[in-house]
Amino acid sequence: MFGPRLDGDGGISLVPPTLEHFKLHIQWIVQPEVGRFWGPRFGELTEERQEERFKKTGEDDTQIMWTIAYQDEPVGWTGIFDIDWVRRDGESGIIIGRHDLFGRGIASEAVRLRTGFAWREMRLHRVHNWIALANRGSRRANEKSGYKQMGVYRKSFFRSGEWYDEWLGEAYPHTFPDPD
Amino acid sequence: MALGGTIRGKKTTLRLPAEADLETFNRWMADMRARRAHRVWHEPAMPATWKERFKEIAKEKMDVLWSIDVDGRLVGFATGSFWSVTELGFTLRQFLIDPDEWRKGHGFDAALALHRYLFDYLNLPRVGVEVRADNVAALRIAERLGYVEYARGHEVYYRDGAYVDEIQLFMGKDAWNERWGATEREYASPLAADATR
């Protein structure tokens, strides 16, 4: 399913994705700067496949997804995936697709909006994630919204001559710092 | 989920699942002893639903389902997922032994055989599993095999009026080789030169 519009600070919003946003994903994830801690930069990256993914994501009630908008321009996506509605637990993820906008606090605000929604509107009990330990920006963005380390997975993936560890985090309503 | 082929243990055999197994899978999913120990694979359902699930399972490319037999009798099942074409590894999702067959060593025997297949036959570099923190039998099997804990999720499962943690475990091929490499081989000896024609 797609999440509702959530307006945050600094011109940052989470908005329901459109098909045009999904088509942008292709050009984002094939960039070396964006894909470094993500995937292999190949796949079925066609507009037809993105149409299928768009439809499937919208119909799937085990995930909630947003487009991240900065000054009303789509710049990435975030969401909570594999939601187990009995355990009220899900796995969160985020991509800032516009690498020219890294370091402006967009991810931090997007994670804050997403995490607050998880507790206040979805009544989830827990959200967890995996982040490359070296991806300090993403890890810090999640920590600011209450994610705590639950473990480290050593040598999770290999990129450009070195192994990368992954940081495993988890968050709960009581670890969320924003009381609003 | 693909359907897995024969892997022989000393007492147990992981084998190709069949539609005839589904009624038993359904019974296990409705057994509170099994549900207490494991995450539910699928909720109990009518036979037609299980048949649909079975058709879907067979089509999946990266997930595998095995049935587990002892002396030709169905005693459990296992499921797991291969990671990707660029990240080699396997996550064991479900490993269920019939609660009426617990404490007979079937779990360890089948788990050892499955891991031998993963490391010695498929040559995977690593395998992972998630276990409820109070599932002592599963943790004991994992420890004997050579798994080590790398993370602990807090208050992940709720049942019997309380939360229980989840332990995430990992085993690499080096650990497998060190502990089992000298004795556990998928084929007993190197292939003789004239073994095939």
Brief overview:
With 180 residues, chain A is of the alpha+beta class. Helices cover 29% and strands 34% of the residues of chain A.
Question: Which tags fit this structure?
Answer:
heterodimer; A: alpha+beta; 5 helices; about 30% helix; B: alpha+beta; Aminopeptidase; 9-stranded mixed beta sheet
Give structural notes.
The complex is a heterodimer of chains A (180) and B (197). Chain A has helices spanning 19-29, 32-35, 47-59, 106-120, 136-144; strands spanning 6-7, 12-15, 64-70, 73-84, 89-96, 126-132, 148-159, 162-171. In chain A, strands 1-2-3-4-5-6-8-7 form an 8-stranded mixed sheet, with helices on both faces. Chain A is an alpha+beta fold and 180 residues long. Chain A has a single domain, classed as Gcn5-related N-acetyltransferase (GNAT) (Aminopeptidase, 3-Layer(aba) Sandwich), CATH 3.40.630. Helix content of chain A is 29%, strand content 34%. Chain A has 5 helices and 8 strands. With 197 residues, chain B is α+β, with helices and mostly antiparallel strands. Chain B has a single domain, classed as Gcn5-related N-acetyltransferase (GNAT) (Aminopeptidase). Chain B has 6 helices and 9 strands; from the N terminus they run βββαααβββαβαββα. In chain B, strands 1, 2, 3, 4, 5, 6, 7, 8 and 9 form a 9-stranded mixed sheet that branches. Chain B starts with a strand and ends in a 17-residue tail after the last helix. The model of chain B has no long low-confidence stretch (mean pLDDT 94). The chains are: A alpha+beta (180), B alpha+beta (197).
